[in-house]
Amino acid sequence: MKFLILNGPNLNLLGLREPDIYGCQTYQDLADRIQAEAARLGVEVTLRQSNHEGALVDDIQAAYGTYDGIVINPAAYTHTSVALLDALKAVAIPAVEVHISDVSQREDFRKISYVRSACIATIAGHGFDGYLEAMGLLKEHLSHCKED
Fold it and tell me: What pLDDT, on the 0 to 100 scale, is given for residue 101?
């Protein structure tokens, strides 16, 4: 199984950006944890981060036929991007939406997710562990799909 892990704008600044919300660990710390969990689960992962909406759309489109699942933290694009929603719907690859913070407890605009309807689940407020949970959930979902 191969998963694409996509991260949106400003996540490259983890550890620096609002540590009271996102913690003190860096993007590299996140990448290391994801790689360790991938090894434990026996899946391959590719991590990508971009501050550009079109680059994320390109990554989703390029995932078709290459990846079995997508873990996506669209960051600020969660609340604004119909383009990411349309790309996820177009490729129809099972996806899990992840947010490090609990967006339901933050500003009102953060409670809106355009991508959510194209995802099989949303995990929010579990910090970096949310990515690991998403990978496990995707693996379980894809295993069940193969049995059907």
Answer: 83
Q: Which of 6-10, 82-86, 109-113 has the lowest mean pLDDT?
A: 109-113
Tally of CB atoms within 10 A around 112: 11
Phi, then psi, of 112 in degrees rounded to 5? -95, 130
CATH of domain 2-147: 3.40.50.9100
Give this prediction's pTM: 0.93
Sequence ranges of the domains in the chain: 2-147
**Torsion-angle region of residue 11: left (phi > 0), alpha (psi -120 to 50) or beta?**
alpha
Task: Write the secondary structure of 31-71 as one string of H (helix), E (strand) and C (coil).
Answer: HHHHHHHHHHHCCEEEEEECCCHHHHHHHHHHHCCCCCEEE
Residues annotated as catalytic are 22, 99
For residue 118 the two structure tokens come to 């194209």
Q: What single-letter DSSP state applies at residue 90?
A: H
